[in-house]
Amino acid sequence: MRPPIDLPPRTHHQQGGHPLQRLDAAYPFPHQEKHIMAGWLMPVALFAAALSLRPAITAVAPLLGLIRHDLSLNGTVASLLTSIPVLCMGCLSPLSIRLGRRWGLEQVIAWSLILITMGTSLRLVTNSAYFLLATAVLIGFGIATMGPLLSGFMKKYFPAQTAAMVAIYTTALSLGATLGSGLSLPLQMTFNSWQASLALWSLLAAAALPIWFVVMHRQAKAHTLPYIYLQSPTLPWKNTQAWLLTLHFGLLAMIFYSLMAWLPPIMESLGYSHADAAHLLTLYAFVQIPSGFLLQLLLRRVPSKKIWLLCASLMQLLGLALILCSTLPWAAVSICGLGSGMLFSLASLLPVDTASTPEEASSWAAMTQSIGYLIGALGPLLIGWMHDRTHQFGIAMLGLCLLTVVLMGLQILMVPRQLNHTAGHQPI
Questions:
Q1: What is the extent of the structural domain holding 340?
Q2: Which among 157, 223, 240, 284 counts the fewest CB atoms within 10 Å?
């Protein structure tokens, strides 16, 4: 005879319950795992991962003149240093969902950090344009596989606190962007090498790895049964709301990455020094750091997505117009940066809040980011192409202003549906 199977004893609440309910009570499934692991470790892990997503991209712009001179790059090729990682984010985001479903969110995020560390550190030995572009591909692959899974990570461990976690996430993104843009030029002057300046940003991703190894270890201990998805969510290709969010994210990314890649050359073309132009880029990134938490406070007082999306877009439009007119550059960049930061916080929060499960959150984020980043990657390329042909940035800045107006139209269309869809959720 086969020996009897010892099952965990039933509690009073389990008597007569559904078999899956009894099994769920006996073993630590994901919703119980949240209580086990969602202490200080999870927010720190989220912050550390998000902090490493942007420096490898934003560190390039202040050094672009030196890189173009040393490697003999024209504007179009130089713009690929920003556009390639963004293109990778667009092309590979759907793949991250399959990897996360197969290996788990935590494991894939840790692998992504390893790729970012490798790609960034290899820039220390860069001696050709092709090698530098190859490192951009490797970095882009790591960023692309991690980005959508962080949305699922937030939904998995903090389903009732997504707004707060998105604030932590966007703060880390903005801080990383600020560090990359603000310190790359001083580091280049210190080491007398733009290669060393770019490679040093691998330390951020490397520092996050031990934290994520702890997360992986605890996650493995928390599972005595495999995590089985009752339904494998697919990308919401037929959902109109998802397409509106995707187009909105794409246009926002196009404006943001255009400025991150070309703001220093734009300001230099207006007569500002190389150092001042680099400082203005740092300011643009710096003012975005508190935008997530500022948005939290504003939404508690006036819980309307539409109002704050439109206000943020107006701020971005005003800043871009002032830059175009070469008026009050420090105020212009500050206003534009704060508006961009608030827009990105809301754009990151909408897919997470719409979803009902971690897997669905990752799927919505993957769709908005895949198509959105493909659209966004066009921005730096188009500005580089136009500058090669016109040798000025006026037409490009006017185009960014028009894109912001289109953003406002999309916000009017998509927000009422979003509010109806998330009725009963916390205000965001």
A1: 29-421
A2: 240
Tokens of 35: 């209580």
243, 413 Cβ separation under 8 angstroms: no
Overall domain count for the chain: 1
Q: Residue 393: helix, strand or coil by DSSP?
A: coil
Rg of the chain in Å (alpha carbons): 22
Domain presence at residue 295: yes
E strand spans, 252-295: none
Handedness of CA 151, 152, 153, 157 (dihedral sign): positive
> Does 286 fall in a domain?
yes
User: What pLDDT score does 160 carry?
Assistant: 75
**CATH number, residue 331:** 1.20.1250.20
Contact present, 287 and 170 (Cβ < 8 Å): no
Q: Are 122 and 138 in contact (CB under 8 A)?
A: yes
Coil, strand, or helix at residue 6?
coil
Least Cα distance to 146 among 54, 252, 254, 38 occurs for: 54
Q: Are 367 and 236 spatial neighbours (Cβ–Cβ below 8 Å)?
A: yes
Q: What share of the chain is helix, strand, coil (3-state, %, to 5)?
A: 80, 0, 20
CA separation for the pair 183, 266 (Å, rounded): 19
42: left (phi over 0), alpha (psi -120 to 50) or beta: alpha
Cβ contacts of 172 within 8 Å, gap of 6 or more? 46, 47, 48, 49, 50, 51
E strands, 188-270, in order: none
Q: What is the pLDDT of residues 262-271, one digit of tens each?
A: 898 899 888 8
Q: What is the DSSP string of 131-187?
A: HHHHHHHHHHHHHHHHHHHHHHHHHHH-TT-HHHHHHHHHHHHHHHHHHHHHHHHHH
Report the 10 Å Cβ neighbour count for 376: 26
Kindly state whether residue 181 falls inside one of the protein's structural domains.
yes
pLDDT 10s digits, 90-130: 888 778 878 888 888 889 999 999 999 999 999 999 888 89
